[in-house]
Design a protein that fits this description.
Layout (H helix, E strand, L loop, with lengths): L12 E5 L6 E2 L2 E2 L3 H5 L1 H9 L3 E5 L8 H6 L3 H11 L3 E4 L5 H8 L6 E4 L17 H8 L4 E4 L10 H9 L2 E3 L1 H15 L5 E5 L8 H7 L5 E4 L3 H8 L14 H10 L4 E2 L3 E5 L8 E5 L8 E5 L1 H12 L3 E5 L12 H11 L4 E4 L2 H9 L8 E2 L4 H7 L5 H7 L2
Helix pairs in contact: 6-7, 7-16, 10-11, 12-13
The structure holds adenosine monophosphate.
Adenosine monophosphate binds next to strand 14 and helix 14.
Length: 393
């Protein structure tokens, strides 16, 4: 697959699809990690004297009100600071204002187009990969570089659409993401430990099916552990259970009894909120009115034993309801354990990535992926549409 390094960018209008989908509240960016992650590719293009046109989505746009909340202007300001250069922001996704701004660009200029999903108010043109929209955006540049791993599992006009009509390659971040995931799928260092948590088993079935024969251990925490525990015949009280997935869990536990490691103790609450009374108990002691909301200290000790021995660790899904302080300890202490291990340590994106970064462990992992869904689909062995189109050209 071609990368940005395979093109002569000098004086060319280079459209780069970045992932600036960052959390913003009242115009304040709460976490600028994704903007920082895109800097390598942007500065590479600046040094190569390209005219750089950036495209990104932000949030979901279903109403005119959503447009106000998901305006990319604050991102443009932050990017300006990080690059130490003015970023030309065009508050339009198409039209003469945008075209004139592009026509006036000089080499090394950086221009950011307004949120691509503003086009979703127009029959979901962006998210449904409307061909005319992809063709129009492609007409604004000479070369297309996709550096947005977070949306690579979706066929949108701003990734698949543009790539259909322009010479295309991937950016440095996307290249780094793919290089990180390849050894997990094809040549894992051993012992290879997969840690899964989060809410739903259903979302992780594809990954489990594709990786279970490749991993040495599968440690399961978070809400999804209770479906496995129930499948093994235990009473899990009022904990989250994904009933549809129980038979899948039973089959898996029967086939891999020594590979799948489940929690032995939990922190319970009567409700998933910060005021609830909590209790630490062994799994077999969960009361009917209690919910398991975090893994307990003994589980962490057990998990640690498997992790100490590991050479490759992939983690997706928090160990508890980490958004509530009382139930964030399991996730934090797991970060602590992994941070001390000499192994290749990779965190899948989404909730786990923001938990790890917010808890202060950003530099303690080998790689924190910028893609949640995309990382999982890659690990399911699926082809990502935004990459397939680039490969096919
Ligand atoms: P996922 O998107 O499947 O990775 O799930 C992430 C969500 O799982 C987070 O919002 C957590 O609050 C939630 N979660 C983690 N542990 C539990 C638990 N024991 N019970 C209910 N929800 C949980």
């Amino acid at each position: 697959m071609k990368t940005i390094k395979d093109f002569d960018l000098k004086n060319k209008k280079v459209i780069i699809r970045v992932d600036f989908n960052v959390p913003i509240e009242d115009g304040i960016i709460l976490d600028d990690n994704r903007i920082k992650e895109s800097l390598d590719t942007i500065t590479y293009a600046i040094k190569a004297e390209a005219k750089i046109i950036l495209l990104s989505h932000l949030g979901r746009i279903k109403t005119e009100e959503d447009k106000i909340k998901n305006d990319l202007k604050p991102v443009s300001n932050r990017l300006s600071q990080l690059l130490n250069q003015e970023v030309i922001f065009v508050d339009e996704t198409r039209g003469s204002k945008l075209e004139t701004a592009i026509a006036n660009m000089q080499p090394t200029d950086v221009l950011l187009i307004q949120n691509t999903r503003y086009e979703d108010l127009n029959n979901k043109a962006e998210s449904n990969n409307d061909q005319n929209l992809g063709k129009y955006w492609a007409s604004l540049g000479d070369i297309f570089i996709n550096d947005a791993f977070g949306t690579a599992h979706r066929a949108h006009a701003s990734n698949v659409g543009i790539a259909t009509y322009l010479p295309s390659g991937i950016g440095l971040l996307l290249e780094r993401e793919l290089k990180t995931f390849e050894p997990l799928l094809y040549n894992p260092k051993r012992p290879f430990t997969l840690i899964l948590g989060g809410a739903k088993v259903k979302d992780k079935i594809g990954v489990i099916e594709n990786l279970i024969d490749k991993v040495d251990y599968l440690l399961i925490g978070g809400g999804m552990a209770f479906t496995f525990l129930k499948a093994s015949g235990l009473n899990v009280g009022s904990s989250l259970v994904d009933n549809e997935s129980i038979s899948f869990c039973q089959k898996l536990l029967n086939k891999y009894p020594n590979k799948i490691i489940l929690p032995i103790d939990v922190i319970t609450g009567l409700e998933a909120n910060s005021k609830t009374v909590t209790r630490t108990c062994f799994i077999s002691d969960i009361l009917n009115n209690e919910l398991g909301l975090d893994i307990g200290p003994n589980t962490l000790k057990v998990f640690k034993q498997y992790l100490l021995d590991s050479k490759l660790i992939f983690w997706n899904g928090p160990m508890g309801v980490f958004e509530i302080d009382k139930f964030s300890r399991g996730t934090k202490l797991l970060c602590d354990i992994i941070a001390q291990i000499e192994a290749v340590t990779i965190v899948g994106g989404g909730d786990t990535a923001s938990a790890v970064i917010n808890m202060g462990y950003k530099d303690k992992f080998t790689h924190i992926s910028t893609g949640g869904g995309a990382a999982l689909e890659l690990l399911e062995g699926k082809k990502l549409p935004a990459l397939e189109v680039i490969e096919s050209r």
